[in-house]
Amino acid sequence: MDGAELGGSVEAEVWELLDADETVSEETAYLVAAALHGDDDLTEQLGGQAPVPQRPDTTTTDTPAPLRAFLRSITVSGFRGIGPRATLELNPYYGITVISGRNGSGKSSFAEALEYALTGSSYRWDNKKGQHWETSWRNLHMGEPAAIAIDFAMEPDDARGGTTATVGVDWATGAELHGARRWSQIKGQKREPVTALGWDQALETHRPLMSYDELGGRLEDSPSALYDSLNRLLGLDLIADADNRLKDAEKQLSGPRKAANEARTQLRKTLDSSSDPRAAQVKKLTARTPYDLEAITATTLGTNTAQAATIAQLRSLAALIVPEPVKATEVAGELRAAIDDHVAGADAAMKVMTARAALLREALHLHADIGDGVCPVCETGTIDAAWRTAAKERLKEADASTIKYQAMAQRLARARSAADGFFGTVTSQPPIEGVDLPALSAFNDALASARSAPDSLSDLPTHLEVAALDVAEAASALRAEAAQRAAELEDAWAPIARTIAAWVELETAARNDDDRLDRVKAALKWLRANAETLRDRRLAPMVGQAQHIWGRMRHESNVDLGSITLEGSATRRRAVIDGTVDGVPAGALSVMSQGELHALALALFIPRATTAASPFRFIVLDDPIQAMDPAKISGFLDVLIELAKTRQVIVFSHDDRLPAAIRARSVPAQLLDVTREHQSVVVVKENDLPAERYVADAEAVIFDEDLDDLIKRKAAPGLFRMAIEAAAHQRFFSDRAKAGVAYHESDAEWEKAMTTQSRVALALTGDASGDVSGWKAYRPHRFPTIAICASGVHKGAALDRNSVADLRKTVRDIVENR
């Protein structure tokens, strides 16, 4: 069926199962459908406010389909290992592209840039301890400008065939990693968020890229983490999300019912301990559902209402609060200090100074109006500029003294106000009808006395302290007396009545949610029962493809891949991968080597990444062969060749083993080489034959004028040896591939040949011990070149332009088998 195919609509498949189940109610079906959509839809459906959920339309859609795209190029600057702007150009069509580069060359930076541009994150960063990866994302040599641009070409049979699109990431100067602006732009249109391409869900369910860390991490995670990973690959995270929503709703709605049931159990135990006839009646009413809450309430709360009010009044008195004596001591102390300061400063001299200040101010005003002249007060002195200067200084001193005096007066006013209002929050307590409380009148008398302030202000502090002690003592006595009277008046039924009332309240609240709780339980039960069916149906084609891919990659492995199942749920969920070792059943993961685990991860990853429902016509693998032996590499190339029929397959590799296997088998492929030069300058070029690269490296060393001659003598012969062995490797593997010999068999034989001459013999004669003396003597450039590879590596050699020419000719002779 369509829904079970890799990439089919999970929601449509759920509706199909609902329609096929004649026992499921309409309400259950609607709740399951709402849970698939989100929290708001589920809440509205439970509240009876939502419309009937609509089945997904799998034939038409109001939004354009996600763009089906090939990768055209990756352009990066200031990011990870790439400093100045560098571009990786790719063939945007079906086929194989291998990008080789030594560790640290910057090749993985292109892969990480692609991942970050598409997802806004990186598996490597998210799964490493600490913040090392996130804090070192800017290039150390040239971190500005930091930018990424990924160009895509649309699939020709897409309605928008011929269209190109770009996903970009820009960082402002000094911005942090996640402060980037991510955008997308279809050619001829304006820039929009990356989500406008419609790839968000596909990046989860059809993730088109996987790194070496992710290959290992997926299967090294816990069984529950692997379960979640496979669940996402199958698109069943939608089911898991719906399950969680229903489970949360069940937990929320079952809370009141659980509390009510527990309270009922405790209540019935309490009723057993009472001899009151009302207890037996209430126990009878709570024996079985439905409980008659009105009858229970009438039996429980229909009497002693006046007594309950009296007890409430007594409990209020028992909780009476009055000001603490220690606070009264603080207020009284402040008042005494304010009185003392005021008395000390308020003498006759202060009053005279104030009056004199007023007179001087008036005299200054007069001088300002009439100028110099005879003093109008004493009629003997003279008012002039000298007098004015002296008068201003005296007035300044007088004003300062006046301000000080006013501050003392304000402090005194505040202190007195605090003392006068100290008992303002306490009120006298009215008598309680029918209850004798001797301490009540004593308290009211103490409070009245406390509010009667003495005539003399100086006596007020002491009065405040004494009154506070009296009021506190009287309040304490009243509280004790009221608590005792309340205990005496409250009969044995009152606490039982309160317990019954509390349960009735809980039961009422629970009944409001019972119906919705039953509906949620039914929906959750159906979803979990059918989740197994969904998993099995959607997992089956993936398992079949994974077994097929594993079969291609398992060369020389004694592990057979069996079933893959997802078991349990919630905290008990786990993924189980079965297998056999030499025919004996065993857990596949527990017996696999690192290389086998990587091969298995690829077998699980590739089917979902290459399903027809994926909009990505490319698949990117970063260093997948790092832990593989030659047999696995050969099988891996078989898988790549098959994938390349329907996908643009891009592989990043840290060594030349995969390109060598491709050359040996004459597989059509784009081979690129990434090198990192000074100051993080990354260069991408065609991946020349390894032997030719070593010849070029040797030539560069020999003619480097800045390089010490001793270093040249030691380093150049080693490059000669690598060039000759690379040429022999190419010749040998190419001939063996044409003869139909398995790659890993050729590799094993190659590794047994330990010297340069034995490897040349293996390439030319098919036998590592073959005689090549005649071949070396046949042309003059061969013997000296092979000699440099032997003794020159150990002793060093002075080489020149002729030596390089001889090397180039010898390499050509070996490759072309002359």
What characteristics describe this protein?
30 helices, six-stranded mixed sheet, single chain, alpha/beta, flat, disordered N terminus, 818 residues, five-stranded antiparallel sheet
What this model shows, in words?
The structure is a single chain. With 818 residues, the chain is α/β, with parallel strands linked by helices. Among the domains are: 255-318 and 491-517, no CATH class; 334-421; 688-815. Helix content is 58%, strand content 11%. It is built from 30 helices and 16 strands. Helix 17 (438-451) packs antiparallel against helix 18 and helix 22 packs across helix 23. The longest helix has 61 residues, at 493-553. The two termini are 60 Å apart. It comes from Mycobacterium novum. This is Nuclease SbcCD subunit C. Belongs to the SMC family. SbcC subfamily.
Give the N-to-C terminal Cα separation. Answer: 60 Å
Structural class: alpha/beta
Which stretches are poorly predicted, pLDDT < 50 over at least 5 residues? Answer: 1-6
Question: Compute the gyration radius: what is it?
Answer: 46 Å
Region (Disordered): 42-64, 250-280
Subunit structure: Heterodimer of SbcC and SbcD.
Family: Belongs to the SMC family. SbcC subfamily.
Domain Rad50/SbcC-type AAA: 73-257
Short note summarizing the structure:
With 818 residues, this protein is α/β, with parallel strands linked by helices.
Itemize the secondary structure elements and their pairings:
Layout: H1 10-20, H2 26-37, H3 39-46, E1 69-77, E2 86-89, E3 95-100, H4 107-119, H5 123-126, H6 132-135, E4 147-154, E5 164-170, E6 181-186, H7 200-205, E7 209-211, H8 212-220, H9 223-233, H10 237-272, H11 277-285, H12 293-301, H13 305-318, H14 325-345, H15 348-370, E8 373-374, E9 382-383, H16 385-420, H17 438-451, H18 460-489, H19 493-553, E10 559-567, E11 574-581, E12 584-587, H20 588-591, H21 594-609, E13 618-622, H22 630-643, E14 648-653, H23 657-664, E15 670-677, E16 681-686, H24 690-702, H25 709-738, H26 743-752, H27 756-765, H28 773-778, H29 782-795, H30 801-815
Parallel strand pairs: 3-14, 3-15, 7-13, 13-14
Antiparallel strand pairs: 1-2, 1-4, 4-5, 5-6, 8-9, 10-11, 11-12, 15-16
